[in-house]
Write a structure and sequence with these properties.
With 810 residues, this protein is of the alpha/beta class. The chain has 25 helices and 24 strands.
């Protein structure tokens, strides 16, 4: 069970009027006040910054040669290979950043070296090799005659493997953005933005952006060779940048802005004319059009990542992203979609297993969650760990002890397999939250680990299975000591307070000024207070072939007192009954649904409002008129029905909490939509203690009625049967099934039922089990009616104001 979330509201400092007017120039259809508040909050506080942030044409990108001597060394070595017609191998990585980086080098270097003749690429198998260079792969490249390896998104700490390649006569150029080695490796060049000052505009580049800068430098050094413009690579750069969750500032933001424009422009072309038919087909499969960063983060990125998580070998993804063969790309896109479907299923299964294990943990004494299981597939552990971290507010480490290579995710961790005779290793992934530096936490326990690597928010690690208890205790103690009296809780922050009347196209376009959003510039979270939900419904989302349920989604309308109109919204992964009854506060993101062509909110968090109908003390929400004498009850009903604001009255005793919930929701929705709570809609429960017949007698009555109707050829309605026998609709259905075993045929005729009987000699014996099921259903229903006849009003109120209202079932 997720812990109670802590909500925080971003500190609001009113920006000066000159700044608001400057922002308004970029969003003339709106006041600009909301975008101005956000930009001011996020450190954009002068005209030059503002213009460069919003308009990429006003931004001055850094030269690739700002990497200094290392870039010059890399270009010199590439020019040597170009002149000597040497064979070059691109060594990539298997996540979305690594795949797009490989694709950028494949297309970019492919302008200078003939693909498949002088240029090849190698992507490790995630489930067999994990991240980074390895000797076996280097051996294969040496046999192919490769003289130069260019890495992307990996390689900085592969000192031993780089030395091994050099011994085989292969030089290495490293392009990467992960952890730096303590000393410069023996490479031809190493291009890694971590060598730059943190404030440098290139510092946050991801692997694909570093690869792009290398190609950019080569374009500038050999200006008359390339046939295609450098800008053709920018769509791939945008996909890798956004999928890798790097901070989108400086050149990262600039490249992402340009790349999204090219991505959208290509998708708008007829399918046969697209430069990247594979990317276009993937966008179609996830019902996106490529004009929003979320099309990448929720669409393209997860699909590219899914291939290695499920299949291990993701090499074909480079062909998917770079080939011009539309038919081939369609085939590969469908394979990718199938892998993503499988990934969702595995992730869902592991999430359920992790949730079960969490129930056995005391979170009040747990600072770092460490869980293990021999059956967990390593490929999805990072995804599940991230979700658990968000839900619990605690760093989470999930380990697989099945003996396969662990999930490196975005961590760039160089894990290697142990030999069959080695002690068993657990391998897995870690994800952080609440600004806890997870990499440092893991690094401080290096003496207990086999290997580890990563960054403050994500890490990969392996350790001896026997060391897990000691590691768990040590890392928990370490974080507790560093936190002191601070308590870890799941936190969600709102950036702006708005009303339902504010929602729509005008606000969407204003907030769109901040895109592309990402690390350091998150999607704006909107706080909507004292609102309520209507017309909610949920459905199961199936995979793209409609075969298997993957997740659920609730759709709804949201309202408040600011407008007479409702606004649509969705809540991924939740059922409609989890929406609160009555007034509430919520945090949401404003989005545009390209599939439905509408503006909508995406619900992030919801909680009771202090102004909710459930918290009103002016009058009781529920009136208890149960088990009254007939004359008293009749008088009360007549009095209630004669007033203008009559109570909602339930006269039939319910048999489950869902029946009562439906009435309660109706009551509170009426109250919530009222302008004030002075005329709060009340609910009167007015049923009497049931006069119950023995189950056997009810069965005999049902059989007798069925025989009579068959003999007289009369029709009967379902309601007439229910009133005559005194059972619920669900129990009647069980009874009709039992009748069929006795030779009765029940057919629907208009709104009535026609019952005929053709008895057989052995019908009684065949019906025994069916009759037993009916009798059991009657007994269960009678037990429930007796319970609801006497359950204390305090219990009903407690459940109404806690379990159901907080979003769980009665």
């Amino acid at each position: 069970m997720p812990e109670q979330q802590q909500w925080t509201i971003a500190a609001t400092e009113q920006p000066p009027e000159w700044f608001i007017q400057a922002v308004k120039q970029h969003t003339p259809a709106s006041s600009g006040i909301y975008a101005a508040q956000l930009l001011w909050q996020r450190g954009i506080k002068d005209r030059q910054q503002l213009t460069a942030f919003i308009n990429h044409k006003a931004y001055q990108p850094a030269s690739p040669f700002e990497f200094g001597q290392e870039m010059h060394l890399a270009i010199a070595r590439l020019q040597q290979a170009y002149n000597a017609k040497e064979k070059i191998a691109i060594w990539g990585d298997f996540d979305a950043d690594g795949i797009t980086a490989t694709s950028v080098l494949w297309d970019g270097l492919g302008q200078f070296f003939k693909q498949n003749i002088h240029l090849t690429y190698y992507i490790p198998n995630r489930l067999k090799e994990s991240h980074g260079l390895n000797n076996q792969g280097i051996d294969n490249l040496a046999k192919q005659g490769c003289k130069l390896i260019v890495t992307c998104d990996t390689g900085s700490t592969n000192i031993e493997e780089i030395i091994y390649a050099k011994q085989l006569g292969i030089d290495v150029i490293v392009t990467d953005h992960h952890t730096l080695p303590t000393e410069r490796p023996p490479v031809a060049a190493i291009i890694n933005p971590r060598y730059l000052p943190k404030e440098h505009q290139l510092f946050n580049l991801s692997g694909v952006a570093v690869a792009y800068k290398l190609v950019e430098a080569l374009y500038q050094s050999l200006p008359n060779v390339a046939q295609y413009p450098l800008e053709d690579l920018l769509d791939l750069v945008a996909v890798g940048l956004i999928a890798d969750l790097v901070q989108l500032s400086g050149d990262c933001r600039y490249l992402a802005q340009l790349g999204i424009q090219r991505l959208q422009a290509d998708f708008q072309q007829p399918a046969a004319a697209r430069r990247r038919p594979g990317v276009g087909r993937l966008l179609e499969l996830c019902q996106k059009n490529g004009d929003r960063p979320t099309d990448i983060s929720f669409g393209l990125g997860p699909r590219i990542n899914a291939v290695s998580r499920i299949q291990g070998d993701a090499s074909f993804c480079v062909e998917l992203l770079t080939s011009r063969d539309a038919k081939r790309c369609n085939e590969l896109a469908e394979v990718t979609e199938l892998a993503n479907t499988r990934r969702k299923s595995l992730q869902k299964d592991v999430q359920a297993q992790v949730a079960q294990k969490l129930t056995q943990l005391d979170l009040s004494t747990t600072s770092v969650i460490v869980l293990e299981d021999p059956q967990w597939p390593a490929g999805v552990l990072g995804l599940v760990a991230g979700q658990v971290a968000q839900e619990t507010g605690r760093p989470t480490i999930l380990l697989s002890t099945e003996g396969t290579v662990g999930d490196g995710g975005d961590e760039g961790e160089n894990l290697t397999s142990s030999s069959p005779s080695s002690p068993p290793l657990a391998r897995g992934s870690a994800r952080s939250v609440n600004s806890v530096d997870l990499y440092q936490l893991v690094k401080d326990q290096a003496h207990l680990l086999h290997r580890f690597g990563g960054h403050p928010f994500a890490a990969g690690l392996s350790l001896l299975v026997e060391n897990i208890p000691l590691f768990t205790a040590a890392i928990n103690q370490q974080l507790r000591q560093s936190l002191g009296s601070t308590t870890l809780t799941p936190t969600v922050q709102a950036d702006l307070t708005v009303t339902v009347a504010d929602l729509g196209k005008e606000l969407f376009l204003e907030l769109k000024l901040l895109e592309p959003c990402g690390m350091g510039n998150p999607v704006p979270k909107l706080l909507i207070q004292n609102c309520w939900f209507e017309n909610s419904w949920h459905r199961n989302q199936q995979d793209w072939q409609g075969k298997k349920v993957q997740y659920i989604k609730t759709e709804f309308d949201i309202r408040d007192d600011s407008s007479r109109s409702a606004f649509p919204g969705i809540w991924w992964g939740h059922y409609k009954d989890e929406l609160p009854i009555g007034r509430c506060d919520c945090i949401a993101e404003l989005d545009y649904n390209t599939f439905k062509k509408r503006y909508e909110i995406r619900l992030i968090a919801v909680r009771p409002s202090v102004n909710s109908a459930l918290n009103t003390r002016n009058s009781p929400l529920i009136l208890d008129w149960r088990n009254q004498e007939h004359s008293v009850l009749a008088q009360r009903l007549a009095s209630a029905n004669s007033t203008q604001d009559s109570a909602l009255i339930i006269e039939d005793c319910p048999t489950n909490w869902d029946d009562l919930r439906a009435w309660l929701r109706r009551c509170l929705t009426i109250s919530a939509s009222a302008s004030t709570h002075d005329n709060q809609q009340q609910l009167a429960i007015a049923w009497s203690k049931p006069n119950l017949q023995p189950p056997n007698q009810i069965w005999l009555t049902l059989v007798g009625i069925a025989k009579y109707l068959s003999r007289t050829n009369q029709l009967v309605t379902r309601v007439q049967l229910l009133e005559k026998i005194g059972i619920s609709d669900q129990t009647l259905l069980v009874g009709i099934k039992a009748l069929k075993y006795l030779g009765f045929t029940v057919k629907r005729q208009d709104r009535s039922l026609q019952i005929t009987w053709h008895p057989s000699d052995n019908a009684e014996n065949l019906a025994d089990a069916a009759v037993a099921r009916f009798l059991a259903a009657v007994r269960e229903e009678q037990f429930q009616r007796q319970y609801f006849a006497e359950v204390p009003l305090s219990t009903i109120l407690a459940i109404a104001s806690s379990d159901n209202y907080m979003g769980t079932n009665f």
